[in-house]
Amino acid sequence: MSGLDDELEPIFTRFGEATTARYTKLPEGEMLPDTAYRMVRDETMLDGNARLNLATFVGTWMDDHAQRLYADSFDKNLIDKDEYPATAAIEEYCWRILADLWNAPNPDDVIGTSTIGSSEACMLGGLALKRRWQHARRAAGLPAEKPNLIMSSAVQVCWEKFCNYFDVEMRVIPTTPEHPVFDGEGLAETVDEHTIGVVALMGVTYTGAYEPVAKIAGILDGIQATTGLDVPIHVDGASGAMIAPFLQPDLEWDFRLPRVASINTSGHKYGLVYPGVGWVVWRSTASLPEDLVFRVSYLGGEMPTFALNFSRPGAQVLLQYYRFLRLGRRGYTAIQRESQQVARYLADGVAALAPYELVTDGSDIPVFAWRLKPGHTDKWTLSHLSERLRVRGWLVPAYPLSGELADQTVMRIVCRNGLSRDLAEDLLRDIRTETALLESLPAPIPHPGLGPAFHH
């Protein structure tokens, strides 16, 4: 059969559907578009429900107007600034909005770019630190090899990738019971003339806590006073850089601190956009070495571009601008506040259960973590609770902390726009129910439960 006759075939008896859908070689012939669509759609039926995935920071909901805008701009290639000059201009509008949000000292002397998520943004920030350090060393007639970058053991894996890919020594200051977040302790012993910068986290992925950027900057000020070493800070604000300006506006962590050279964030996290878009902004054009910037022409002029990727979608950039226009400062504040209130509600509910104690309570970013009280039980672990919640459809990760705290397992819930109070009540009910079931066990569970879940 062919043409219209093919469409008369009953569903699931057509070519392709009556055999395996798992092609690892290109099929010899064509199939109906409805058939191909259904096969791909069916293959993804076992994927989780994104709204119930409380492991990820990535946005899982946008409104109908955003979806229409997304559909209107699927074909836009952001790098082609000659064909899409308006999209290129909107990209600049967005990073200038972020520069203002993060208190850049001079709006006429600032530069930024969009990226594919904040991992690329971190790598660009790290590259700028490295290149700036190399230029300063060579100008002083000093060797520019063996750079190092200082960070907490709780950094996201993208920083390990950066140091590996770009030949930078990763100097890690471990988290400890006395210093559960990096607070500058140990910097004086770790900084040397080869240090290109320090990474500070506005929202530790393990727990949701802020690292005290101002305190870290103050310690680096003291180091400069005694050694002459001027070490800049890159703030990894993948989550917190889109929370703190709205929920903790008086907290000094951004370009109000002269030592902060650059900041990144994820537009697709608390920037409230579908994946994947990130942003990085430098406090001044001098903070981004000119030899890292490529210039492309558009509309008879030129536009700087700095990225690891080349062709990439422009749709998410337009969605980010839509969010900025649609919500404004008041709208972002309302959404982030509601997410935090849901986090605090859930944290209070978990803390009220006898087996648990909070590690963080959601008062920084809308994320909280908890652990089993030491010695509470030998019959079950948080991995078993994670497994039981997964049976009910919830993805709540259990995983070890970093550094000297790696012997502690925690669970963490990320509260995003779309996790309503109603859903939170359902989740808390299920946590109570499954905890009671585990507590009632007469003997230890004979298997270890799920392994550490994806939590970045």
TrEMBL record:
Superkingdom to which the source organism belongs: Bacteria
This protein's UniProt keywords: Decarboxylase, Lyase, Pyridoxal phosphate
Gene3D superfamilies: 3.90.1150.160, 4.10.280.50, Type I PLP-dependent aspartate aminotransferase-like (Major domain)
SUPFAM superfamilies: PLP-dependent transferases (SSF53383)
Cofactor (UniProt): pyridoxal 5'-phosphate
Entry keyword Lyase: yes
Keyword Lyase: yes
UniProt record similarity statement: Belongs to the group II decarboxylase family.
Descriptive protein name: Glutamate decarboxylase
